[in-house]
Amino acid sequence: MDTLLAGFSDAATHSLENARRWKAKTGKRVIGSFPMHFPGELAHASGALPVLLQEADTEITVGLGSFFPFYCGYTRSIVDQALKGEFAFLDAIMFGDHCVQLLGSADAIRCYMPETRILFNQLISSMDAPWAMEEARATFAQLKKEFEELIGYAISDESLRNSIRIFNKNRALIRQLYDMRKAGRLAMSARQMQDIIKSSMVMDKETHTGMLEELLRSIAAKPAAKAYGVPVYLSGHFCQPPKLALLDLIEGCGARVVDDDLYHGYRYIASDVEEQGDPLDALASWYLARNRKVPCPTRSDGRADWDLFLVDAVAKSKAAGVIILMAKFCEPHMYYYPEIKEAFERNGIAHLLMETEHESMPLEQFKTRIETFLEIIRRRAAA
Amino acid sequence: MQAIETQNRPRTDALPPGAKKANRLAATKFGGQIVHDYWSDLFSAKDDGRKVIWYNGTYIPPMFQTMDLAWVHGEAWSAYLAAKHGELPAQRAGEDRGYVRELCSYARTHIGSALLDLRAAVDRVAADPTDERALTMSKLPPPDMLVNAYPYCSSGQQWDQQIFRLFGKKIPIFNLSIPLLWGGRSDAGYLRGSEWEERSQYVAKQLRALAAFLEEHTGRKFEWDRLSEVMSYIKKASELRMEAMNLCTAKPSPASYFDWIVSIAHVNFLPGTQRIVDYFELVKAEIQERIAKGVGAVPNEKYRLFFDGMMNWNKVGWLAEKFAAVDASVVAGRYTHMSFWQEPQLIDVADPILGMAQNYLICPNNHGAPVMVNQIDELCDKFDLDGVVLHASRTCRGMTNHQFQIAESAKKHGRQAMTFEGDVVDESFYKDELLNTRLEAMLESMDSRKSYFAKTA
Predict the structure, then answer these.
(1) Which of A27, A122, A136, B213 is spaced 20 to 30 Å from B392 by Cα?
(2) Which of B160, B177, B310, B400 would best serve as a mutation to test chain A binding (most A beta carbons within 10 A)?
(3) Residue B200 to residues A142, B30, B176, B265, B346: CA-CA distances in angstroms?
(4) Residues of A whose CB is below 8 A from B398
(5) Does B154 contact A131 at a Cβ distance shorter than 8 Å?
(6) Residues of A numbered 299-358 whose beta carbons fall under 8 angstroms of chain B's beta carbons: which are they?
(7) Interface probe, candidates B108, B119, B150, B161, chain A, greatest A C-beta count within 10 A
(8) Interface test with A, best of B404, B419, B428 (most A CBs within 10 A)
(9) Among candidates B266, B324, B275, which has minimal Cα distance to B296?
(10) Chain B contact present for A116, CB below 8 A
């Protein structure tokens, strides 16, 4: 099991290096993708390896001269990596999200990587618009067409359905881990869970699925370890994962993460794509439905309530409190935070907001705050 | 309503004795009167039995005017508060609820203002009758409908979602999606290509749906002939505005960016009537007169500049004087010259929807960088500009996204470029000393360059 977990960790940590190796070994294309809403299934059906571009752990240096410092760590890091030539091996990059900062980074990448093909298709963000389904389908159809132009032949419906099945299976296996953790039958650390999900974003899906199956077998073979610590729910952090050191700190202070809605977490694996029927219809439906499954503040949807979702999710996970991780300058999160805070207050849910940054991590300050937060929870429980 | 606290700040726009002052267009006084009348009319809308729409984004009021509605542009309201130095209480109310300061300050101010209104309604607190400004501000009528029509900026859509949720999801909302013109296809270009055609039809389709939404929530038929009439005034006013702007190729420039800034309301959110046509006729006539007399917008025009970025609404007069004092005429800008019906010829008054949609699509930041930067370079060439001043508005990332590319292109074309920090309506981000030193350095550099070329010529 340790070897498997080390494999996930290696894939998550060295995503670009591994993708370069994969390309050299297979001779196939690698497609970079921006988070959070583009289905890797389309790239996979074109025979390529879809790799979700990740915030780097390294310092932002040359990027400082091309992107303002008051942007989120993810966009600044991506521009920095582009300028350093880290993405030069990619055959194309697909994006087209709605977030204004991502749009800025998209144009910066086009400017600094003129040789790289950009597959830009903006998804509708008004999820409850009457034409949302038609528009989302048209966007995926255009993206499919652009993939076909890239590879020089048509992607069959069956091939796309096959990719959908492969991705669904992978998500379902990770959800099993989530269910076991929530039920207290799996003592997996937040770091390990992030490694598993992040590696799924960047690895060949079938290889990753094979590793997951092996992991599940080895978990089944061992008696369930008893989980210790104050159960907490992690919420927030969209395009970039929380730093591993922060996750370690949270658990090191005596917390036990039982569930989350992080993009590098449950948000990524929450929804499956319909395997029957027209695959573009299925992808468009998946895109629209997933926002109601785990509401996303980057979308506009009068029918989705992130605050109510969280109150419910916290209750179901039996978490004693929520740690909200807000990436600095993440506008969508900033908009919704007050509503969430009020919902937690109304429902008596203990919560702690922590603003994270790419560059610096005041770990000592964080430690004090987390310890105090956990102490409050313990006292509340004892009262 | 609760009294909105206003600030008694020390005047920061006082010039040193003998400083050269900006020579603003006299016509803008008439323009100011029209703006004043708009707000007065809005404040009495509920008394007149009119429904009120709060909206954000592009210039869609012709749709509302057609239905005899009253409308509030959230950005304009925030800018209005800032220009009157009344934005702080609203911003503080936003912060009290938990909105972080790095969030769009337009949104924070507008949402904060709504929070104050909601709180006042619950607490039944009236505005202080001795505070005229607070009384005026407390007259903002609450919304009966919400419309979001934000090109490019995701923050705009989330802002209206917050307003929608703040009012308990009880107010009908319409979201108009105006997608980015990325310009990645081989046939892409300014006002051309398959993406342009598809997106134009897509937005036009939504405008027709907006008409149906307005019919549903007013119980009245949308009068398409009335829309044509409204658009005829807007088209005429916009043509006059563009003609007047184009006259500023003259040296010295007869009007400045700051004159155009105070003329934005008229083509952004004021009603399409003969009055806005009259206004731009006056503006154009004054400009023609100035050209005939050789009068400039700054007393001694030595440098001609382009202004990029969103306006710093707390500092309009302050900036106008600062540039005038150093003989710099800010002739054109992205916000003023690349927006607000800047392609009026696209509007077919008999059937205006498609042309409206197309003008909405070409808002100044809704192009991918290659097209946008090229448009800016063309404006700089046309007005024979020496440099580009970029206002890095801290919380308006829609306008800062491309500024490094704009600066790089300016330098490639032999123009100086400098950035200063500020914000749209949060004054605390403005750094005056940085602007002073950077502007001074840029002008010195321009002098050296001119002197070098004069010697080597």
Answers:
(1) A122
(2) B177
(3) 17, 35, 13, 24, 11
(4) 100
(5) no
(6) 300, 302, 326, 328-329, 331-332, 334-339, 341, 355
(7) B161
(8) B404
(9) B324
(10) no
Q: What is the pLDDT of residue A93?
A: 96
ipTM over 0.90: yes
Annotated domain spans of chain A: 15-151
What is the pLDDT at residue B454? 83
Categorize the per-residue pLDDT at A361 as very low, low, confident or very high, splitting at 50, 70 and 90.
confident
Check pLDDT > 60 for residue B7: no
Interchain pair A68, B161: CB under 8 A: no
**What pLDDT does B128 receive?**
65
Cβ distance A100 to B155 less than 8 Å, yes or no, reads yes
Angle at B31 between CA B27 and CA B36, to 5 degrees: 145
C-alpha torsion B357→A127→B397→B116, nearest 10 = 100
Q: How far is CA A321 from CA A188, A246, A261, A373, in A?
A: 19, 17, 14, 9
In tens, the pLDDT along A30-64 reads: 999 999 998 899 999 999 999 999 999 999 999 99
| pLDDT tens figures, A152-172 | 999 999 999 999 999 999 999
Q: Which of A100, A118, A300 sits opposite B175 (nearest CB)?
A: A300
Show Cβ contacts of residue B168 under 8 Å, excluding neighbours closer than 6 positions.
none
Residues of B in contact with A99 (CB under 8 A): 154
Across residues B331-345, what is the average pLDDT?
97
Q: Model confidence over A74-99: pLDDT tens digits?
A: 999 999 999 999 999 999 999 878 89
Question: A270 CA to chain B: closest CA distance, Å?
Answer: 23
φ, ψ for residue B25, nearest 5 deg: -65, 130
A107: nearest CB among B104, B158, B402: B402
Contacts of B177 in chain A (CB under 8 A): 124-126, 129, 135
SS3 label, residue A371: helix
**Residues of A whose CB is below 8 A from B411:** none
- H-only helix segments in A222-305: 244-252, 266-269, 279-293
- Listed by number, the residues of chain A in 127-156 with a beta carbon closer than 8 Å to a beta carbon of chain B are 128-131, 135
Helix or strand run (H / E) with residue A382: helix A363-382
If one looks up domain A15-151 in CATH, what number appears? Answer: 3.40.50.11890
Rg of chain B over CA atoms, in angstroms?
Answer: 22
Q: Tell which residue, B31, B23, B434, has the closest CA to residue B261.
A: B31
User: What pLDDT does B132 receive?
Assistant: 56
pLDDT digits (tens, 9 = 90+) for B124-158: 666 666 665 556 567 789 999 999 999 999 999 99
